[in-house]
Amino acid sequence: MTAEQLLSFLVIGVMMVFFIWDRFRYDIVACSALMLAIAVGVVPFDNAFDGFSDDIVIIVGSALIVSAGVARSGIVDAAIQRFLPDLQSVRAQLALLVVTVTVLSAFIKNIGALAIMIPVAFQFARRSKVQPSVFLMPMAFGSLIGGLMTQVGTSPNVVVSRMREQLTGESFSMFDFTPVGASLALVGAGFLLFAYRLVPERKSQQVAMHNAIEITDYTAEAVATSGSPAIGKPVSNLVKIGDGGAVVIAIFRRGTHLAPLPDVVIEPDDILLLEGGPAALDRIVSQAKLKIARDRLPPTGGDKGRAEIEAIEAVIASGSPLIGMSAERLALFNNHNINLLAVSRQGERLKQRLGSIRLQAGDIVVLQGAREELPPFLQDFGCLPLAQREILLGTIRRGTLPLVVLALAMGTTAVGLLPVQIAFFAAALAMVIFRVIPLRDVYRAVDGPILVMLAALIPVSDSLRTTGGSDLIAGWLSSIAVGLPPAGALTLMLVAAMAVTPFLNNAATVLVMAPIATSFAAALDYRPDAFLMAVAIGAGSDFLTPIGHQCNTLVMGPGGYRFSDYPRLGLPLSIVMILVAVPMLMWVWPLR
């Protein structure tokens, strides 16, 4: 072992210790490891920041934006309400998520399948009052397992097929992976449905901040116009859309105040007074196609400014000129281009029309206006903005457009028209161009610490290859495998690929391990197919870290996971995969 190889192993070993210790945030650990690797000479100066242009960073960042666009569209909420209105059990919800992601990942890029379903996981988490972390890691692992079923499901399968063609003259076909892969998917998905409790519930920073300032008793006003699907249906049907998070507290019909009994049928131009949390109110307004704020939009200076309309929560401070005034008396919209969307008053249910409520000190209001006009209004009228969180109530939606953009991205990658990084970057850009996500929210959707961690780790991990450390590992494996029985040798190849892939990335693992597997099989007079398949399965089954595959990285921030959470579920899952894969490989791909 050379000095450079020893130093590379040492840097990676120290980094892993700090990751598991979890005393410092993961991006700080990764950047420190990069600086240490540069200091000891295993990462050249010229290659120190190559990770920031790596495809994996682009894919993860773009997928986060695309997923946020799908979530903002409201179409996921509508689909769940229409097709799965009564799915309340956490295990049933998890089964739907894991099975869907696993099956989709067999035919489309697994990160695309995962991006589609992440907003569904958040919706289920809200419905079941659990943390999204309950769903996200099992979904990420399900996407990895599903990718094992076909040649196009994951990069290692594509690479190992090309390697087999180079080494033996014949490539694997599309469904050569299916018998073993489907068995692993069936057993693995079943295991996840029962073992998901091994991962502790974590709160992401975003969810924790949302809960810290959660307000559940806003009063808002909406109108049932002629195009609303709520017309002709009872109030109980409208309330059901909010999943219990909002209620109708009054109905105003042609100047008459009606009690909102569950069987009262909604008619055109009914004015509905709603009470609940912002998310539930938004679901009711968007899915029932109600008109809020009397259909008034602040002037925006043309199409360019429309994306700059936003809603903000603020507290009316003591001494505010708004105290004792109502929105109608102030002519809030006519004089200030500001819409009052909702009001919350602690300990009191407000039953008046929104515009006639006399505001008091301590009231919390949701105001909508042009972004540049809101700050001076808040300052002039003594309102203190709350910590910023996403308020979708009253925002413009783009319907099915986000799903169309995502489908085009996945379709172009599936047929080989575009590489995945180009397709997803284009999809993320389309989300911005078509105003699915306002410009101000784009960088909020991208999880900066995750991307920095990935970018810093790529050169550190690559030092194993550049210093010859990966070749050294390969030599050790070959010397050990010579004395093992067939099943033992096959197991060693599978375990080695699983262990190496977090540091080499899955495609590089196949490039390093496939020639070793082939030459080892030839030395023992075995057919190479089972060993090549073992390398592909091991390289595509990184369940131990958040850094070996972009799907694991994608859920780390939204799930609030720690580095040490992954092996809690990933290690037993890896053992299950090994126990199933080895006998299946020997049966489907005989060694002699």
From TrEMBL:
Q: Where in the cell is it found?
A: Membrane
Task: Kindly give the InterPro entries that the UniProt entry links to this protein.
Answer: Cit_transptr-like_dom, DASS-Related_Transporters, RCK_C, RCK_C_sf
Its main subcellular localisation, reduced to a broad class, is membrane
Transmembrane keyword on record: yes
Q: Where are the transmembrane segments?
A: 6-21, 28-45, 94-122, 174-196, 403-436, 472-497, 503-524, 569-589
The residues covered by the RCK C-terminal domain are: 207-290, 299-384
Question: Has the keyword Methyltransferase been applied to this entry?
Answer: no
The family database entries (SUPFAM superfamilies) matched by this protein are listed as: TrkA C-terminal domain-like (SSF116726)
Give the highest taxon in the source lineage. Bacteria
Q: How does it sit in the membrane?
A: Multi-pass membrane protein
Which keywords has UniProt assigned to this entry?
A: Membrane, Repeat, Transmembrane, Transmembrane helix, Transport
CDD domains reported in the protein's UniProt record:
SLC13_permease
Q: Which PANTHER family match?
A: BASIC AMINO ACID ANTIPORTER YFCC-RELATED
Protein's recorded name: Di/tricarboxylate transporter
Species, as recorded: Sinorhizobium kostiense
User: Organism classification, top ranks?
Assistant: Bacteria, Pseudomonadati, Pseudomonadota, Alphaproteobacteria, Hyphomicrobiales
